[in-house]
Amino acid sequence: MSKPVEIIDELNLLSEHGVRNTRQRSAILQVLLASDIPLSAERIHEKTKEADADINLSTVYRFVEMLVEKNLATKSFNLEYGRATFELSNPHHRHHLTCTHCGEIVVIRECPLDKLCRALEEDTGFAVIGHRIELFGVCPKCQRELSTEEL
């Protein structure tokens, strides 16, 4: 039941950043809010269609890129699949582990780099203001399906 409040907050956030709210943008935003993992524009488009929203894929691309430009979303590029994924910006950043076989994405909830960042700040005098890490591997399901040579 807390989702609608989050959606209203996000819509207010859009207006605070000068982004006009439309029915299509609201549908895209709701898909992003409902997802725990980053989604490709194609997957966002599929999910809006599942919700009976009539949105062109190009509209999805334009809107998520606008969100990225305004720092309201983050964009990651998966080299294995040659596609970008998007997720709403989160004050508590997250990292991801992606299966190189099936594309499954798992969110790493606790940042493994906090200690390293503090040590780097002490060693270098830099003030670390952010970082991003993407890890790639083979999920347990794919490990069972693949032979040892294919891993």
How would you describe the overall organization of this protein?
With 151 residues, the chain is an alpha+beta fold. It folds into 2 domains: 86 residues, Arc Repressor Mutant, subunit A, CATH 1.10.10; 60 residues, Ferric-uptake regulator, C-terminal dimerisarion domain (Dna Ligase, domain 1), CATH 3.30.1490. The protein is built from 6 helices and 6 strands. The strands form 2 sheets. It has a 3-stranded antiparallel sheet. A 3-stranded mixed sheet has the order 5-4-6, with no helix packed on it. Helix 2 packs across helix 3. The longest helix is centred in the first third of the chain and has 14 residues. The N and C termini lie far apart (42 Å). 15% of the residues are buried. The N terminus is likely disordered.
